[in-house]
Design goal:
The protein is 11% helix and 44% strand. By secondary structure, the chain is mainly beta. The chain has a single domain, classed as Pnp Oxidase, Chain A, CATH 2.30.110.10. It has a six-stranded antiparallel barrel with strand order 2-3-4-7-6-5. A hairpin with an 8-residue loop joins β2 and β3. The longest helix has 8 residues. InterPro entries: Pyridox_Oxase-rel, Split_barrel_FMN-bd. It holds the Pfam family Pyridox_ox_2. This is Pyridoxamine 5'-phosphate oxidase family protein.
Length: 150
């Protein structure tokens, strides 16, 4: 039996598929043998830096814990008329963004994205505390399905 070939997506198609924002799943590494904590989140994507930005609800009782420097994996997937099924997976760590102590590049990146505000909290989002973070990627892959040939 042949090993299937993995079809990667080039940077231009990857950037087109991600747009400047959408929804994906962010998984926070578990402690020890614990499973990861995975949550659907809105993202913004800065094409010029190939960087994901997030607006994350924070709460002292949150299962995700402190978000700064947390190891994470982020997954976005969908279908495309030209490419069929596709996925993008980025792994690395989160860096929180506070206007007082971040670089101009980070703020420019945050300003260039559109993070959808998805209300899942059962209360006004004005009553929810959010932090902004960006994913410092250590691995970043984009793949698509491949047609079967026999």
């Amino acid at each position: 039996m042949d090993v299937p070939e993995i079809v990667t997506v080039d940077d231009t198609d990857r950037d087109r598929l991600l747009g400047n924002g959408g929804v994906g799943v962010l998984s926070f590494a578990g402690d020890g043998g614990d499973p990861p904590h995975s949550i659907p989140v809105s993202y913004g994507y800065d094409v010029s830096e190939a960087t994901f930005y997030f607006r994350l609800a924070v709460d002292e009782d949150s299962a995700k814990g402190e978000i700064a420097d947390h190891s994470v994996t982020f997954v976005v997937h969908g279908t495309d008329d030209d490419l069929g099924y596709w996925s993008v997976v980025a792994s690395g760590h989160l860096e929180t963004l506070e206007k007082a102590d971040v670089t101009t590049d980070a703020l420019d990146g945050l300003d260039s994205v559109q993070i959808p505000l998805v209300d899942i909290f059962g209360t006004s989002t004005r009553n929810v505390t959010f932090e902004f973070a960006r994913l410092i990627s250590e691995s970043f892959t984009a793949r698509t399905d491949s047609p079967t040939t026999e």
